[in-house]
Amino acid sequence: MEEAFSRRRKSLPTLFYDFHALMNNEISYKFQPSYIDGKFELLSESDLIEIDELAQLMIDPDANFEQLLELWETKRKYRKLNSPLVGDWDNQYE
Prior knowledge:
- This protein has 94 residues and is mainly α.
- 52% of the residues lie in helices and 4% in strands.
- The chain has four helices and two strands.
- It has a two-stranded antiparallel ribbon.
């Protein structure tokens, strides 16, 4: 269980990097959604399920593009990013 948890955490930067690239938003691997950045252990079961669903769709992005675009447009938490110079404090204002 701990090994799967560790692998999942390590794959997050790549998952969100690829998702943003697919949506024509080129980011660095150091940019992560603010709700995840440094808080992986605090994610709820529903957060983890959502991330797994995104990962499943990203396996075949061409076939799943419409669903991925819908996530991009509706899940703001996937687009609200922290980086080495931008943290939660900077993202608190809409």
